[in-house]
Amino acid sequence: MNIGLIGYGKMGKMIRRLSEEEGHKVTFIQDLREKDFIRDRKATDVYIDFSAGEAVRENILMACREKKPLVIGATGWEWDCALTDAVKKSGICLICDSNFSPGMYFFRRIVEEAADMISVFDAYDVAGLEMHHKEKADAPSGTARALSDMIINAFPGKVNAEFYPKNEKRPPDSFHFASLRCGRIPGIHTLLFDSAEDSIELTHRARSREGFARGALLAAEWALQESGIRAFKDVMESYMRKEIR
Length: 245
Description:
Structural class: alpha/beta
Distance between the termini: 25 Å
CATH topology of the largest domain: Rossmann fold
Number of domains: 2
Number of helices: 7
Largest sheet: 6 strands, parallel
Shape: elongated
Strand order of the largest sheet: 2-1-3-4-5-11
CATH architecture of the largest domain: 3-Layer(aba) Sandwich
CATH class of the largest domain: Alpha Beta
Order of helices and strands: EHEEHEHEHEHEEEEHEH
C-alpha cells in the first residue's frame, strides 16, 4: 500500500514509521513545516490526514478529484452538504473519526452498554474527564464530544454536556465533562457514574500514539476496498466479523 500523509507532526511521523515496518511505502507528504517534501501523487493509493482542522475541507476535495480514499483523524473542522455530495460523486471511501485507537473503539462500546444499563436507575449521576498533553490544540477533544453524545443518548433528562462550566450550580439536565492539558499525557478518558451508595469509573488510558497510528493504517487498508462516508467503528466491526468467521 502506497500512503500519502497529509500533516507530518507527531502522528504523521508515527504512521510513517509503522507503515514502513509493515512493508508499506510513504509516497506523499504534505506539511508546511516539512522541508524535504515527498510529492508522488500518482503512486499514492490512499491518503491519511492528521493535519490542522482548517485544511481538511480542501484535503477532502483534493481526494475526491483524484478519486483516492481518505482517512481523516484531524479535528476542529465541520462537515457540510457540499462535502457529502463531492464524496458521493467521486465514489471514494472517506473514513472520518476523532479516535482511531482499537482500544478506544472497545471502550466506547463498553461505555455505551454501561450507560444504557445505569441510566435506568435515577440514583446515578454522570460526569466525564479527559486528559491530554499540553500541546493538544483542541479542548474538549473529539473523543470527549463523542462520549458525551453517548451519555446524552442514554440518559433521560440529560440534554447538554458542559465542557466549560459556569460559576453557578449545575442544571439537572446537564453534566460536566472536564478537560485537562498537562505534560506529555497521550490520552486518558474517564466516565464516572456516581450514587449515594457507590461509584463506578470506566477509564481508557493510551500509553502512546502508536495505537492511533495502527488504527489509521488499518482504516487505510480497509478504505481501499470500500466506498462512501464511514467511521472507524465500520472498520472495526468489519474486521471482527471477518475474524469470527
